[in-house]
Design a protein that fits this description.
The protein is α+β, with helices and mostly antiparallel strands. It has 2 helices and 12 strands; from the N terminus they run βαββαβββββββββ. The radius of gyration is 29 Å and the shape is elongated. Bound molecules: 2-acetamido-2-deoxy-beta-D-glucopyranose (2 copies).
């Protein structure tokens, strides 16, 4: 009499165990609850399989016990619907949050102006090694010239600039020779060895004694997300761009050691 069918639903659970969250959403339903995946921010996505009872309608008079069964089925369905309502409300909340995150993401992946994307450090007209300087170097094999984006480890060549010490006073500086419009920062970690800069700030100016921090909307010196691995380029668009001769990258947090390769887009 009851036709077996199932409702599949996705439920995002944050800061709650799967079971707890499920019992909140569908307190009375018997159901299988499977973890589908856990994303980076710790949010677990769970696949719920809710049984849905459906009643076959028959003609003619029904016995009392049949009527009772029908009534129970309807009650079950009502319960199920209210559980689904809760589930939908929860999903709506999740979607709202995802939309906000997408907005942030859109800002951070906004592209620099198409006509101002020359590689100012190592592009067609590269700056010289002497125009790349740093607060310190691990030793002379790890000097600032090793910070060119394309540097790879090869025999004795070290695949990045590495600071002497790991603290938040280190910097890598590019002198573009004259004032340029700077539209994005590109960074990579160290080739072959697990070291990279996770977050950094930048300072810029026309005189190395008067460098300005690049600020965010709230007026604090902006913290840029850096790398999460060794060889992929992470790009941060400067929106708005800056006009300056010098640019300094100041690592704030790092993995393994302060080691970075970088270039600057601009014109
Ligand atoms: C149901 O039972 C009632 C009372 O016995 C009768 O009057 C009625 O015609 C029946 N209905 C059907 C559809 O058989
Ligand atoms: C550098 O000089 C240029 C041109 O004189 C000026 O537009 C720009 O604002 C200066 N940058 C800084 C950071 O002072």
């Amino acid at each position: 009499m009851a036709l077996a069918s199932f409702i599949f639903a996705l439920l995002c659970v944050s800061e709650l165990s799967t079971d707890k969250a499920f019992s909140q959403v569908a307190p009375n339903a018997v159901c299988s609850c499977q973890e589908a995946y856990t994303s980076e921010d710790g949010t677990t996505t769970v696949v719920l399989q809710l049984p849905k009872t459906s009643t076959a309608v028959s003609t003619g008079n029904k016995s009392l016990s049949e009527l009772d069964k029908l009534k129970q089925n309807y009650q079950k369905q009502a319960q199920m619907l209210s559980s689904q309502g809760l589930l939908l409300m929860q999903q709506a909340k999740q979607i709202q949050q995802i939309e906000l995150e997408l907005q942030d993401l859109k800002l951070s992946i906004s592209k620099p102006p198409a006509d101002c994307q020359d590689l100012l450090v190592s592009g067609n007209t590269p700056i010289s090694d002497s125009q790349i300087t740093a607060s310190s170097m691990y030793n002379s094999d790890h000097g600032p010239a090793h910070s060119r984006l394309y540097t790879n480890m090869d025999n004795h060549i070290v695949g990045s600039w590495s600071a002497r010490t790991n603290d938040n006073k280190q910097w890598l500086q590019f002198d573009f020779g004259r004032v340029r419009k700077l539209t994005a920062i590109l960074t990579k970690g160290r080739n072959q060895i697990a070291q990279f800069v996770k977050t950094y700030q930048i300072h810029y100016g026309n005189n190395t004694l008067l460098m300005k921090g690049y600020r965010d909307g709230t007026g604090s010196v902006k913290i840029f997300q850096g790398n999460i691995d060794l060889d992929n380029i992470h790009e941060n668009v400067l929106n708005p761009p800056v006009y300056a001769r010098y640019l300094r990258i100041n690592p704030l947090t790092w993995y393994g050691h302060i080691s970075v390769r970088a270039d600057v887009l601009g014109c």
